[in-house]
Give the backbone structure.
Amino acid sequence: MKLNQISIFLENREGRLYEACSLLGEHKINIRALTIAESDQFGILRVVVDKPEEAMALLKKNGFTADLTDIVAVEVDDKPGGLAKILKIIYDNRINIEYMYGFVEKSSEKALLVFRFDDSDKAISVLTDNKIKVIGKKDIVNL
Amino acid sequence: MSMQEISYWNREIETISSEALRKLQLKRLKETVNTALKTPFYNARLKKAGINSADDIKRLEDIHKIPFTTKDDLRECYPNGLLSVDLNDVVRIHTSSGTTGTPTVIYHTKEDIDNWTELVARCIIATGSGKSDVFQNMMGYGMFTGGLGLHYGAERVGMTVIPIGGGNTVRQIQLMKDFKTTVLHITPSYLLHIHSKLAEGEISVKDLSLKKAYLGAEPYSENTRKKAEELFKIDAYNSYGLSEMNGPGVAFECIHKCGMHVWEDAYILEIIDPKTAEPLSEEKEGEIVFTTLMRKATPLLRYRSRDLAFIYKGGCKCKRTHRRISRITGRTDDMLIINGVNVYPSQIEQVIMRVPEVGTNYQIYLEKEGTLDKLIVKVEIYSKLFTGELKELDALRERIKEQLRASIIINPVVELHEPGSLPVFEGKAKRVVDTRTKL
């Protein structure tokens, strides 16, 4: 139930983020979650989209440097302590988080958390064992 | 200034008559040819040109029979193709990186260092400095000849020398104040930088005892000299040298600041058309060509410096008979001078080509940050090796930076760009964008 996040290299140039996002938008690819990792001279746009393969092909065709990265997305209750509950499970099982970002879902009382773990498979099994809902490929389309 | 007494370090030789100078030059040229014939390189090259011994040099004009020596020759001779003495007699080695990373080397015997020191001592005295001065040497020590060259000359003159080398501006200023430094040896851009730092601290120009600055290692204009002189209330003198001809002490301005006297008892000076190699007359700008006349360990005959300048007509008010050259007006090659350090674009290219994660297209960008130079190397990342991890890109950038620093000595900023985003050049790539306003 690993998902694919698309990581897009963005050089430090005006309008480059817009160019990437408008390309996806024009082709009806929906961004479900996103974050930008930035260095002083470049950035990496990280997006979870409904159609990752299609998006990758599109980006490459249009000259973007992009790669797919395994991530794990989980759904938690959108209330105080929601994130902490997940983090405790991860911490107790000594799994490293390389980075994470979160989103609030518009149609439910849930929040979406996107994790990049050092060991995605272990994380998925630990989370599933603890009755945490790990988002699958189909779920992401319907979010 | 006209009332200032003119002093000489070696009056006899500095004011030698033209006729006696030519005689001395011929004698020393013959000696140099004999010395050169002891090196594998010149032995082959001179014999091919029909010069089998010093007897084949009968007049000074016969120098034209000798083929030119180039930087490439020096590279090919590395490490000992140009060594003419037993290594036991060598007391110092200076190497510099060549255009493609192959170094060049100049060996010095004890006598060579002594002669070099004498030339520098002449320069220092020619500017009116002397024993009572405190000399803060802000040029780099080590393989770069700027630091050690002036250091030895200053000690010979009897100045109090502060061998601090470059950088560390706060400490430089403190030492200038504490020891009442009167003379600086410094690049013009660093001198202006120090002034901007003075404004930030508690020590001001008034607290200093500066009288003079020797400016060298990078090109600058007359306006910059005036600016530096006004800002610090000093006299600034132009200094010229190149490691192949020892380093500093080849040519220096006297108190009249009207061109740099070339010590013609130590070097034969020629100016040639860089394209046709034909000799040019006075006041015509061309490439400076030097022949060493006193060097024992590494004699160089008709060495093409790639520096452009011209010779001033007429004598100087200081009565030194050694002719004066203009400040360096440019280069015949693509060498860049960045904060006083010589860098060839090909050195940068070589490093970039060794890094698999970046493409072969790159750009070298130069700009001013305050009065100092900033080098930005822009490279394109290679799509197939992009993993989406920021830390990997940061590590890559750091690695390229380290490798560049090891090759060109100075610290660049490395920028990563998307593939295909840098301009593509056709034919001979013109990848250097220099936006620096000339100092």
